[in-house]
Amino acid sequence: MESTLVGTEIVEQITACEGVDPVDLDVRLYDRIDLDALEALTTGTSNQQLQANLRVEFTYHGYVVTVDGSGRIIIDEQPPERKRTSHR
């Protein structure tokens, strides 16, 4: 069984949350993060301690995406920015 690339899995999870096709996303994932580097970090090291401590987090299409060293992906909705109020 062939494993899915981390970038492909991220896009599939986001489009499933949004209920859209990947081509309908207005920003491409590769414009937000270096997919080759992400793939290399999650699959390219034999150093188990490094992989165990690895965590990459970025925002994409209104979601916070977290990828750990094993390639596990967590997609969380990005919290709305808190409105700042000025007190005079």
Describe this structure in words.
- Residues 6-76 form the Halobacterial output domain.
- InterPro entries: HalOD1.
- The protein has 88 residues and is α+β, with helices and mostly antiparallel strands.
- Helix content is 32%, strand content 19%.
- Strands 1-2-3 form a three-stranded antiparallel β-sheet.
- The protein contains three helices and three strands.
- The protein has one domain.
- Strand 2 and strand 3 (73-77) form a beta hairpin.
**Would you report the number of β strands?**
3
> Strand count, sense and closure of the main sheet?
3 strands, antiparallel
Distance between the termini: 63 Å
Low-confidence segments, given as residue ranges, are 82-88
Whole-number count of domains = 1
What is the typical, i.e. mean, pLDDT?
Answer: 81
Number of helices: 3
Strand and helix order: HHHEEE
Shape: globular
Pfam family, one: HalOD1
Organism: Natrinema salifodinae
Domain Halobacterial output: 6-76
InterPro entries: HalOD1
Keywords:
3-stranded antiparallel beta sheet, HalOD1, 32% helix, alpha+beta, 88 residues, globular
